[in-house]
Amino acid sequence: MNIAVNGEPSGKSLALMGAVLVWVAVLVYAASNSVVSLLADIGREHPVMGRNAVTLCNLLFLGSLLSLIPMGIMFHKDWTRETLRRLTRKDWGILSLSALLSSAVTPALFFIALDYTTVTNVVLIGRIEPPLFLLTTFLLLGEKLDYWAFAAGLIALLGALLMLVLNSDGAAFTFGKGEIATVFATLSFIASTIVSRVGLKGIPLGIFSIYRTILGTIIYYFLAIYLYGALHFQDIFAGIVWKWVWVYAILVIVVGQFSWTLGLKYARSGDISLATSFSPVAALVIAMLLLGEDPGPGLIPGGAIILTGIGIGQYGRLRRQKAERRAEIAEKMALDDALEREGSINFKGA
Question: Model's pTM, two decimal places?
């Protein structure tokens, strides 16, 4: 039964907390593109020797380094000799793979995608993630497939596809380099999420977060130098970068990654899929509010389909919760009945 023992939270409480944190992370990540666009606009308005110093790469690299300060304050107690000795080679391998995927490969692919296609296309094509994530956890981790959440993810994907078709203004939708990079970035994100779910079962959150950030930042630095040239980070020490990078570091990296990582540890796969299905609508609405962007004619019909999918997923979640409550009540009644029968027997044996 899911009850609190010695003041420790129950399994249901942890699952609820995980679901809430995942939703917080999804909203933060949905706002991240708009926040980055705003910061880039500020950089264009205040150029350094004719260059925009507030680039995506500068924000990610410097923001990741600065995020180590609050992480170190929050998680320094996890970094003890005793804890580090308990980590096996497999644990370090999981940490390194997670750092490579989540902090280097995935953002690099998304940045490449943004060079060749629009933010809207990147957001909408990324809707392949929720149903693929559920299938992956079912096939690789052996988790029970939440059919309601899976159906919700597919419906949300249909809504995103409708947005893409309607927003093409009657022209045939082209699947170019940006769209291909988005697909691979999404697959990399799914892989990093699976690795995180496996790794978090035996690795303290503080070690996981800090090590992944440090190694991922180093890998990303050399990857960016390889892709864009040795002078790519020449404006990293510009005053305007340091003035605004804290917004990105605190909001996207610290709040977003902390909520996402801790949420992955406790949330159910169905709750994660349901929350991520809401991401495109949230991203488009936030872009409208912060940037004044026109989401196109596909927003209302596509958004309505996505919201329908979310509603179906929520209905399935409520059904599951009711079934769990009924099972708990039946278990408690069976236990009470057994105790009552035992109490009615006078002879207990020698």
Answer: 0.70
Burial of 19 (0-12, 13-18, 19+ CB in 10 A): buried
Contacts of 157 (CB under 8 A, 6+ apart): 127, 128, 130, 131
C-alpha span between 220 and 287 (Å, rounded): 27
**Residue 240 has which token pair?**
């305007």
Half-sphere exposure of 193 (CA within 13 A, CB side): 25
Q: What is the pLDDT of residue 173?
A: 61
* pLDDT at 170 exceeding the cut of 60: no
Given a cut of 50, whether residue 152 has pLDDT beyond it is yes
Helix (H) or strand (E) holding 125: helix 119-125
Q: How confident is the model at residue 3 (pLDDT cuts 50, 70, 90)?
A: very low
Instruction: Say whether pLDDT at 100 is over 60.
Output: yes
Distance CA 171, CA 194 (A): 37
Distance, CA of 113 to CA of 108 (rounded, Å): 9
Give mean pLDDT, residues 45-51.
87
Residue 296, judged by CB atoms within 10 A of its CB (0-12, 13-18, 19+), counts as middle
Above 80 in pLDDT, residue 190? yes
Decide if 258 contacts 72 (C-beta within 8 A): no
How far apart CA 90 and CA 195 sit, in angstroms, is: 12
CA distance 187 to 217: 20
